[in-house]
Design a protein that fits this description.
The protein is of the alpha+beta class. The protein has one domain (10-73). Helices cover 47% and strands 14% of the residues. A 3-stranded antiparallel sheet has the order 1-3-2. β2 (46-48) and β3 (51-55) form a beta hairpin. The longest helix has 18 residues, at 56-73.
């Protein structure tokens, strides 16, 4: 597991959908689950009950890379 800086928030996959909407990427929870199987998806840093937790900054960087890849395909 990765050491987390105090100012970096932890998010779950449901919150990832909301963050993607802020970047005008409209995806479903199923898309997040599919992306989680890719090797460059952020690694899990914790677990809160039944939810896996990820670093907010890691997801933002993944999302930006994904956005560039989507734009290159179209």
């Amino acid at each position: 597991m990765k050491n987390i800086q105090e100012k970096d928030a932890l998010i779950n996959r449901t919150q990832m959908v909301q963050i993607a909407k802020e970047y005008n990427i409209f995806i479903s929870q199923g898309t997040i689950h599919r992306w989680a199987n890719e090797p460059d998806f952020p690694t899990t840093v914790g677990k809160n009950g039944k939810y896996l937790l990820y670093c907010h900054s890691d997801f933002i960087s993944f999302l930006k890379k994904r956005l560039v890849r989507i734009q290159m395909e179209h």
